[in-house]
Design a protein that fits this description.
Blueprint lengths: L7 H7 L4 E6 L2 H17 L4 E6 L6 H9 L8 E7 L5 H13 L5 E7 L4 H4 L2 H9 L1 E5 L7 H11 L2 E3 L3 H9 L3 H15 L2 E3 L1 H10 L5 H10 L2 H13 L4 H23 L4 H7 L7 H10 L4 H17 L7 H13 L12
Parallel strand pairs: 1-4, 1-5, 2-3, 3-4, 6-7
């Protein structure tokens, strides 16, 4: 069964399937869909929850064993499987197909994936999961519809945008739904519900002295090391969560890695950025980052550092999240950094 993200709430109000596959390229909308499912599941007795993240060397047999183990605390369990790449590999595809055929008694499955291309959505494991449960394929909001999306979201929060207020937010955020949502929340906290005009929006956008995660990414991409590190320190001092900062950096790194790969295989920079849907206003800073890191292995190293930083921020690995983020920002900005402590003999 396929359900759109805007139909999920109505579906959950009427029934709860044994498994859900939620995938998409809009982190905010994917997070909201998964939160809605978790909330309803908890209300219906699925209070025992375990989480598995698919990484290199993931043990699919352990996942199956977890599903078969009886819980000491609850008869109904929710098992969440995070598949960031949306590609489980041969063993994973077999395991997920088997899971769809027999999800287990008293188990609710939530499988969360990143962006899926058309080929992946037609794969056997996806079709089997869709037939056995519910597939929620979240699509990013097209650029042309973004002002309308912002307007609807503002109204859902009790704000009444007038004139071009919604359009200004949409243009500033350049298609980033999380950034747009943050701007809306900031307006609501500062002014309360009611009418919001263009002047209010412009004042909120231009008068905010607080750095944001996207400005940090931009500073690192253009190679401004002192400013990027200063902004990182400011964000962390203000209590901005490390995973949110990491999300913004990881987003740019994956885009840069893809562009670098395309260029290594013969594509011109402009053609590569067109294929990757890079906004024209961001192309100069993207070009500077690519020129600074001409070795394709550089972005692979940064993505490895991002993965380690994620593990440290979540407490899975020992370390200092602030230090790991500083190293990652420095790598992207082009700073000369010492080797990590764990690599020093």
């Amino acid at each position: 069964m396929k359900v759109g993200p805007d139909q999920l709430q109505a579906h959950l109000a009427s029934q709860l399937a044994p498994l859900y596959l939620i995938a998409g390229d809009a982190p905010l909308l994917v997070a909201e869909a998964t939160d809605a499912l978790r909330r309803v599941a908890a209300e219906r007795g699925f209070t025992d929850r375990s989480v598995h993240t698919v990484e290199r060397g993931f043990d699919w047999h352990a996942l199956n064993a977890d599903a078969r183990n009886l819980s000491l605390f609850a008869e109904q369990r929710m098992i969440e499987l995070r598949l960031p790449t949306g590609k489980p590999g041969t063993d994973g595809a077999k395991a997920l197909t088997a899971l769809a055929e027999d999800p287990g008694d008293g188990v609710l499955w939530l499988i969360v994936c990143g962006e899926m291309d058309n080929k992946t959505t037609k794969a056997k494991w996806v079709r089997t999961l869709e037939q056995a449960g519910v597939f929620v394929h979240v699509r990013n909001v097209p650029t042309g519809r973004l002002p309308q999306w912002v307007q609807q979201r503002m109204r859902s929060r009790g704000l009444q945008p007038s004139g071009n207020a919604a359009r200004i937010i949409a243009e500033r955020c350049e298609g980033n739904l999380l950034a747009a949502d943050q701007e809306i929340e900031k307006l609501l906290l500062a002014n309360g519900p009611g009418t919001v005009d263009e002047t209010t929006v412009m004042q909120s956008v231009t008068d905010s002295a607080r750095y944001d995660v996207f400005q940090l990414s931009d500073a690192a991409m253009v190679g401004d090391v002192p400013r990027a590190i200063h902004m990182l320190d400011g964000l962390l001092a203000e209590g901005v969560a490390a995973p949110l900062i990491l999300w913004a950096l990881d987003r740019e790194l994956r885009m840069l890695a893809r562009l670098s790969w395309l260029m290594q295989h013969g594509a011109r920079a402009e053609d590569a950025m067109t294929r990757a849907r890079v906004w024209s206003s961001r192309r100069p800073l993207v070009r500077r980052a690519l020129e600074r890191h001409r070795d394709p292995s550089a972005f692979a190293a940064m993505l490895e550092q991002a993965a380690r930083t994620d593990q440290v921020a979540k407490g899975v690995q020992f370390g200092d999240a602030h230090a790991e983020l500083t190293r990652l920002v420095g790598m992207l900005a082009g700073a000369a950094l010492p080797a990590p402590i764990e690599d020093v003999a």
